[in-house]
Amino acid sequence: MRHLLAAALMAACALPAVAAERFPLADVRLAAGPFLDAQSTNLRYLMALEPDKLLAPFMREAGLPLKQESYGNWESSGLDGHMGGHYLSAMALMYAATGDREVLARLNYTIAKLKQCQEANGNGYLGGIPGGSDAWQAIAKGKLEADNFSVNGKWVPWYKLHKVYAGLRDAYRYAGNEDARAMLVSLSDWALKLSATLTPEQMQTMLRSEHGGMNEVFADGEPG
After folding, report:
1. Per-domain residue ranges for the chain?
2. Residue 165, phi then psi, degrees to nearest 5
3. What is the C-alpha radius of gyration for the chain, rounded to an integer number of angstroms?
């Protein structure tokens, strides 16, 4: 018996190592239990949010008329627009996890409105940062001051943009929205052009400010 066990172990060790792979989220459905309860609670919360309120900062900065005023608190005090990016990721993941067509409809509606904002901006930029256009133009010219939580007086602008980048990536990756993919590429081209003339020292100065997961998003490369 011991010889058989030893032979089996030796045979197992000889097998090539295979990396573990996660199941695609869309291939997994939760059964009844606390995890499904938590998912259902999250779904109810997401569906209670109003897309037009989350879109308001982006519409305002693109010079487009608002359908509703923005949410208050951080969405109206300098962090404007970061919740919109979170919303894209949350809705994309929720659609993949549930297949809920109403979730997909709301996600696609939000992406369509953001596309209008990006087109109105005319340079690939997409954000809800108050006065963001002027701030980014100054940065492109090498005029920048940064501390742990601001760049040129704007509250963590790269952190807020990271949420938009990640949201567009997730809308394409998990919900198959092709417009989101094209918008992500355009927004990446904008960032490349913005930073092309900055010296390494200027880049390091700017990166003093909280910048979320920008490194992660850029490392993902072109979605596909």
Report:
1. 37-220
2. -55, -50
3. 22
